[in-house]
Hints:
By secondary structure, this protein is an alpha+beta fold. Helix content is 32%, strand content 27%. The strands form two sheets. Strands 3-2-1-6-7-4-5 form a seven-stranded mixed β-sheet. A four-stranded mixed β-sheet has the order 8-11-9-10. The radius of gyration is 21 Å and the shape is globular.
Amino acid sequence: MRVISKRPTxxxxxxxAMPVTGSLSAQxxxxxxxxxxxxxxxxxxxxxxxxxxxxxxxxxxxxxxxxVTTADGASTIIAVSEATKVKSGGGLFGGGRKLTPASLxxxxxVTVKTWQGGSELLANQITFKTNDLRTATMIRAGTxxxxxxxxxxxxxxxxxxxxxxxxNIKSTTNVHFDTGRSDLSPAxxxxxxxxxxxxxxxxxxxxxxxxxxxxxxxxxxxxxxxEKRAARVINYLQQACGWxxxxxxxxxxxxxxxxLAPNDTEEGKAMNRRVAVNVMVSKSVDGL
Length: 288
């Protein structure tokens, strides 16, 4: 049974009004994600009720919000304040020591309990494993470039890149899927990490990930499926293969466009159910 009294309403008002300062502000700036776009005004606390529980990986932070990507590739934007309860523990998201939102790092698996008002979600409690925090901290500490250097490198490259026809495609790796599915096979996972390793050895290389489907299903279904497949590949490249997010071009889902083979045979459909991972280098950088 859910009970909402006047006291939680006052608490939520304080949460939404509270500025994000100190180490949280610095951390949010360091992990700022330009792909997080939030439109409209946060809901009034009186209109908020208990929201859904969200389990996934933190894939971005910006302006007091985090982006959590779930196992199916879907992303959810959740507001966070210094009043949000943040806890870590040794067990499966069990109880443990209390932390601040500054502890939330990209790449950490989390469970988020939320309040909801309209389409806006506010984090009530965020929990994660202590080992996951330790791993994320080690990765962050071992990053060769700081956030400012990453941003400068990205802008320097993209400033010279512009349109897609200004790139040279150095190689393309295709991973394939069963009908209606977005699961990656062990062989495909190995292929993706091999591609990332080879691309990392190519100076100034970026990755462009494009998802496709066969002709089975409606246009809307295929568009959503192609985007989901692309998101699944991107998550694996970044989280398991170590590919840096700032070296990733904006992904896209192309549904049934650009088939590799006719869709009138099962063999052709199997070839078209794919995600293409393109290793791209600017022509200006490539000297061609």
